[in-house]
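call fold(seq) -> tokens
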Amino acid sequence: MSNPILNIGIIGSGSWATAMIKMLGDNSLPKNIFWWVRKEEDAAYIKQYKHNPTYLSAVEVKVPENNILTQAKEVIAKSDIVVLNTPAAYLKDALRDVTAEDFKGKIVVSAIKGIVPGDNLIIGEYLQKAFQIPLENIGVVAGPCHAEEVSLEKLSYLTIASKSTENASLIASTLRTRYINTVESNDVIGIEYAAVLKNIYALAGGICHGLGFGDNFQALLISNAIREMENCVNAVDPNSSREINESAYLGDLLVTAYSQFSRNRTFGTMIGKGYTVQSAQLEMNMVAEGYYASACIQNIIQKYKLNLPICDAVYKILYQHHSAILVIRALSEKLT
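ret:
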């Protein structure tokens, strides 16, 4: 008996969205892929040349011309599974014409590692609030996995989380390739919060690197970060079966904190070297989710009365304009 043909839509056209287009294109399951590309000129370029002109331009786009669209509402209408893959700060704009009715009956997957500014909600919570999507119909894609290594077909790993084991298995099956291994989880909320936090910790690591701190201090910083992460996710969503040393938590933290491809580490390094936030953003021309998450997580800290000194230190540097070297020196006295 043949497998049913799935219709899968990707909302977003950055590096991670382009990497997921590659995964889907290299996956052997029968499917139709629909891709929302924000800019008309980028969509036209991709249709003609089969490459994203701005991100991962070496990746061949295996999406039919008629399936590359500039209206998110149209992509969602054509899809059974919708993967949201924009920066968290731009999600509302991407979905501005979309209603709860458009998402009805769809499996909606977040590949976004951030918090929606203003609402201070992780993506899964935002989808439930704004579009009344049941938690069972929401999935999360987590690492450890960088888009650049996917483009190079380096062996990589994804964790797919959903409260529905059937949906988790279905999503995982569409992303699995010879260079992508997938595992499944039911820890939707914990994995989303971990993905938010690891960007902040990677930014902290970058700041320390930019200031000239060495590998010894970085190791101390990240070992403290994983304990902070565990305290936070357990406070927000108590889950006795969660194992913080699994790849979706510790693994994703490590690759984001240390990889040359980590935009959060790069952003932090620039801040540590003396760049202003604005100049670092302009030079990178990419979104470092940790910057926005740093402000949003302060509301979570206050709500749950959490002690997260690394998160506090990053916030002081980025938003309160404290001296980076003085903040990190003070932080170093609290680390064990």
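The radius of gyration is 19 Å.
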